[in-house]
Each structure stands twice: as structure tokens, then as C-alpha cells.
Amino acid sequence: MRRRETTPLDPAVAAELEALEAALAGDPAAEPELAALVRDVRADAPAMAPGFRARLDERVERGFERAPRRRLQSLRPMIPALSVAGCVLAALVAVVLSAGGGSSDDAGSAGAGRAAAPAQTESADSAKSGGGSASGSAGGGSSSAPALAAPAPSAPARQRRVERSTRLELTTTDVQAASDGVVRATQATGGFVQSSQVATGDGRSTASFVLRVPTSRLDDGLARLTKLGHVRSLQQSADDITNVYNGASTRLAEARATRRGLLRALSKATTAQEVSSLRARIADNRRALQRYQRELNAVRNRANYATIGLELTGVARKQAAVPGGGSWTPGDAAHDAVRVLEVSAGVALIALAVLLPLTLVGAAGGFATVAVRRRRREAALSS
Fold this sequence. Notes:
five-stranded mixed β-sheet, two-stranded antiparallel sheet, alpha+beta, Alpha-Beta Plaits
């Protein structure tokens, strides 16, 4: 857009206008604040229709010239004829009113008399029954009595925002395999693993997870996770954060309204001091908008995603089964028999380990004794 200047501008105002034109043109060397301001204004600006854009460009090319005023020179010869027609019309209206006025008044009076009695009767009945008061109006041969006022529709209830969290503890014989299953189950429900820690060793293996699962699929996620081991404990809690969400949303809406007001004030500013002050306030407002948007996103995520704190504890395979209160079954008997055989074999192995050295020593001593006796006998025979 070209600006037509009739009077010399103040150098400060001219510099501000040049900087603003550079920002509007998308010059990379433009001031960052002005460039950000231009982006905000264009983001809030309504979409312009193609036809209106074409007409506006045409007016810009013509320098916004004013359209010529319509002159009434061509209507002057018709003024006498219009005056005569107006007089004739007024006379016709007067004749019609004078001819039908009496009958209208009589009809109106009769209608008022007929409507007064029902109105009075209805008012008396309403006063006796204590149900309220009724008022009647009559005119033009018609009467009406308003019925009882219908209750005003109640305002729709605002959606409640609830933060849900769960604490789950599982025991399993294979912590690593269960950890892989936790990741797969979380991804299957559309969630993600926020943090994880797995510790394995010769002794006790443990793993801890912090999972974020969509609130709408929390039950599905818990059903998948509980299949990975024995449930030691399960704790669930819900916290209503509707007020927190509404507060963050209100602050963001107020900041946006303030930005629109500042942009309108900037478009009407005339001095360099006003422009500088408004630009500083808009920069502060932009930072506040970013902060309020982050707060609202955080509260929205708390409501849309449930938190699951999962603890996995590794146990020995023999401790994996939790003793129940059922009867003793043949399977239990077979298990006990195998256990007895295992213990007996262990005892026999220990006894063998103790007796084997003694047996070897005794055998060596016996062989030595037999050899000494044989030598003595041979010596005695030879002598």
C-alpha cells in the first residue's frame, strides 16, 4: 500500500512506519517484536472474501476516492406531482377512518365487556386456590389470560474434569519378560511409559514404571497389566480438578481478550510514545498467553490421561503359587511326593559325600593289613 503524504511527518513517526512496513513485507531484518505483532494480528484477522479483496485493492489503486454524491436535480420537476398525490392519499385515509370508526368503537366496547367477566372470574378463582394471579386484557373483540409461567430451562451442567491415578503391585517369576509385557500393554491402550527402572541380579529382581494411559481406556489397561503376574495390591483414586481446569481456561480467555483490545488500541495509536507503550504491553501479554496455554495443556493432560504406578517384584518359582484354601488334590500329592524324593536324594547325596572318603581310607587300611600279614607269614615259612 502506498501512503500519500500531504504534510511532512515527524522523523520518529516516519521511522516507526518504515519499521512497521518492513515487518508487514516480511523483511528478515525487521524488528522481532514487530514481526511477532504482525503474526498475531494476521492470526486474529478474519478471513477476507475474494470479492471484497478485489474491491479493496481497486479502491487502494484509486487512492480511496470518494464516490460522487447523488444530486436531486432530476427529481425537482416531480415535486408538485408528489405533493398532490400525498394530499389525495391523506383525504382517502380520513374518509375511511370516519366511515368505520363508530362500528369499531362499539365492537371494541362489546368485546371489552365480554372479556371482563371471564377475566374477573378467573382472577377470583386463582385468588381462592392460592395458585397465583391471572391478568386479562381485552381489545378489538379479543381477550387473553396468560397461563402459569413455565419453569425456565436449567443451564447445562459443565463437564467435570477428574484426575484418576492407580497404584499396582505385581509379583512374577520373570521380571524381564513381565517388563516387556508392560510396555506392550501400555502401547496397546494408546498410552506411553513416562518413566521406568528395572533392577535384576542374583538375588531379588524388581522393576518400577510410571505409565500414562487414556482415562477412557484405564480399565482395559489394568486388565492387561494384571495378567502379567500375581496382584499383590491395587489402589485407585480420583481427584476432581474441574475448578483448576476452569480457572486455567478463564485466565487464557481473558489474556486473549486483552490481546485483542491491545491490537485494536495499537491500530488507533497516533504517537510514537503510545505505539511503544502498547508494543511493550503486547509483548508481556504474549508471554502471559504462552504461560496460560502451558498451564491449560497440563491440566487437560491430567484429566485426559490416568497415571498408573506399577511395581514388579521377582519371586522364586516355588513361591509364585499362593497357597489357597482348597482341598488336597492328587496334583498336590504328586507335588509333595516329588518334593520328598528330592529331599531324600539330597540327604543320600550328602551321606555319600561323607562316607565315600571314610570308605576309601578303610579300604586302604585293610589292604595294608593284609599285605603285612602275608609278608610275616612268608618270612616265618622261609625261616
